Amino acid sequence: MKNWLLWLIVGIISIIGGFMALANPLAASITAERLAAWTFIIVGCLQVFTAFRTERFGAKLWAALGGAAGLFVGISLFNNPMAGVITLTMIVGLLFFIAGITKILMSFALRGSPFFMPVMVSGALSLLLGFMILSNFPGSAAVSLGLLLAVELISNGVALIALSLQRKPIQN
Prior knowledge:
mainly alpha, 0% strand, 6 helices, single chain
């Protein structure tokens, strides 16, 4: 990694963004919802565009329908951000819950190895997070996405700083 200083700067920016999201989790939740809305709109447009370039009728139809569905979801999220935040929070809570159960079950296949406990703990934490989000739903919806975004940004920043410092050339 030749550009260690660039990675260090990106890590610092990520941590600053994480603390900003932590300071106002509702704004961060709405920002995450808006990002998801724009992503659905852009992907939907690209799928519709791809449909016109596809030769087979069946593929053209499915690409157009998929694109239209993506556009519909994106526009719906964009037009009603709080409903989108609630929907996305429910999906995230369910994903954490399912991921937790999956990781716990997978950890049993690693019994006796040094990887058993980390995978088991990761699964238990995912399960706990999913339970916490879903047990206070929809009350948790306004801030859950923002808090998760904050934690991810801070975690990402710490990892980038650690990697950049590890790659920093040693000067004598």
